[in-house]
Amino acid sequence: MVDNALSPHGGKIVERVVPTPAEKLRGLTQVPIRGPQARECLGIAYGFFSPLEGFLTAADVDSVVKNMTLASGYVWSIPLVFDLSEGQIKEMGIKEGGKLLLTYQDQPFATLDVEEIFSYDKELMAKNVYGTTDPKHPGVKRTQAYQDKFVGGKVTIVNPPVINPPFDGFWFPPKAQRELFAQRGWKKVVAHQTRNVPHAGHEWLMKGAWFAANADAILVNPVIGEKRPGDYIDEAILLSHDILRKAGYFREDIHTTSLLLWDMRYAGPREAVFHAIVRKNLGCTHHMFGRDHAGVGTYYDTYAAHRIFNELPDLGIYPVKTLEWWYCPVCAGIAYEEQCAHKQEAQRFSGSLIRSIIEDGVKPPRLIFRPEVFDLVMESAEKYGHGSPFVNEAYLKRPDPVMTIPAMQL
What we know:
single chain; alpha/beta; Rossmann fold; 7-stranded mixed beta sheet; 31% helix
């Protein structure tokens, strides 16, 4: 099944946000959920994950795992499942045909229609989705941690969250994001996926993709989700990307930033496909894919995310496949791998180099970091990161900084 370039995946944006009075929720079986599950509920209900209307049933899970499509035939690359233990299901009396009230932050949040309760081979899921069953892979570890049963069914947000500062300025669900594009007259938008603060290589990756796509604009859409010690803090990622435009490195009329609530699976090529589908739902026509997109360690080769799109039908969003940008002392500036002949002299923007620069706290040359970006990263460290722009234990112990579920008395 193929959609037109500007249509959402599946043909329409899913909307399952229905504010519901407390009296209509009383008596439902309450199931507390974790942060990742709450973010997945938001992604489903606000249409980021269109055409999904809920957590996958067995037929969809099996088709995604084995064929990278939903049972309907639409391409889908990562199974979204709601797990419970068999003991929880028995203790709570959960049965097919029922309805659950999912609670988050001890408040009613969403309902889940119980269409099917099933089991699935987690080793097969890990092997097919991640290409490995190595428990050191974070996606495999997540899969192995699932409980022994899955509940498939439609999800509805009944108590919409309040998005907290500074994230509120970047919260654009698909309908709002598409409206923004329309207001600005942007018909060709190229998406940039990131979980890092932007160094010069990232900036030129975006500029190169903008030229390659002949795009009207760039949407920087950082992933905001589960964090591990050493990751960049979310506030630094969002605000430092936004400052590139505010400081004039991108014109106001060709650049914008919004967030995606998603917990990275590090599924390499499969996650690249997922990213393309989500950004298609946001209204993007193109998506840039550089080296090691959504990869981790050495589980995938450098350009696995490029090749996977050759194996798929037209998704309605065009992959802009880019190679590496580096600093070339011979060219005396930022250079592109396909153009620069000084590969031996190239100075790459390695993660460890960038990290050491930030940890030193000494403003680096412009050819590595824009000064405004560096200053904002340092400010974010003091304001949000307990003195560090990298996730530490104090940062991890905070309540959910992105959203607050309004109090509702049942």
